[in-house]
Amino acid sequence: MDREIERFLRRLSFVAIAIASTILILLFLQTPDTCIPSHAPLKPHLRFPKSTCDFATRVHAPLHKKNERLWSSRDWNSKVESFSSAVFLPLRRLGILANNSKVLCVSAGAGHEVAALSGSGVEDVTGVELVESPPLVQRADPHNLPFFDGAFDLAFSARLDEALFPARFAAEMERTVRRGGSCVVAVAECGDDEVREVVDLFRKSRFVSSRNVTLVGMRMTSIVMRTNKSS
């Protein structure tokens, strides 16, 4: 009797193992049902789902739409106006900047200064930065600018004091400006001694003027220099 029970239990265990193995194989082979609709794109993994039923593709706005939102924001327009009133309008009064000037903005960030110049009527403005922000700013190394000597009438930067190699940064600004053109920088607010130190970085230029300004909410000093007409 005991042997019969033992044989029965052994057979039962073999059957249970066989059923469990069959179920596991079916689970591996069967494609699980999800909540993804039939009209879904071929790559539903564009956004990592929170659950198997969380299906929603990420909508990628085109560049011009992103720029429209950015350029219509109050913060953007406030910064653009700050560059216009604090830096570029005084340069027009000095006769350094005109609508037909060719201007280079070095380390232009997102392009506020480029937008300010273009918006004021300057026709030829180029902005460069290590990270591009099209269409206002193209990618270039401020320490190795990809422009011919004397290509611009005016070079401007509000980030000289952030440069890794300030002397090289200043030399590249000077190199790209024609003889008799201008280099203008805005640095953290400073006194006469610090202004002279900045001017000394521009070995082929002479000091014209400096003034303290409030630029994008920060106290800064705008320094204007003229490149020498002869080497």
Automatic annotation (TrEMBL):
<protein>
    <recommendedName>
        <fullName>Methyltransferase type 11 domain-containing protein</fullName>
    </recommendedName>
</protein>
<keyword id="KW-0812">Transmembrane</keyword>
<dbReference type="Pfam" id="PF08241">
    <property type="entry name" value="Methyltransf_11"/>
</dbReference>
<feature type="transmembrane region" description="Helical">
    <location>
        <begin position="12"/>
        <end position="29"/>
    </location>
</feature>
<dbReference type="InterPro" id="IPR013216">
    <property type="entry name" value="Methyltransf_11"/>
</dbReference>
<keyword id="KW-1133">Transmembrane helix</keyword>
<dbReference type="InterPro" id="IPR029063">
    <property type="entry name" value="SAM-dependent_MTases_sf"/>
</dbReference>
<feature type="domain" description="Methyltransferase type 11">
    <location>
        <begin position="104"/>
        <end position="185"/>
    </location>
</feature>
<keyword id="KW-0472">Membrane</keyword>
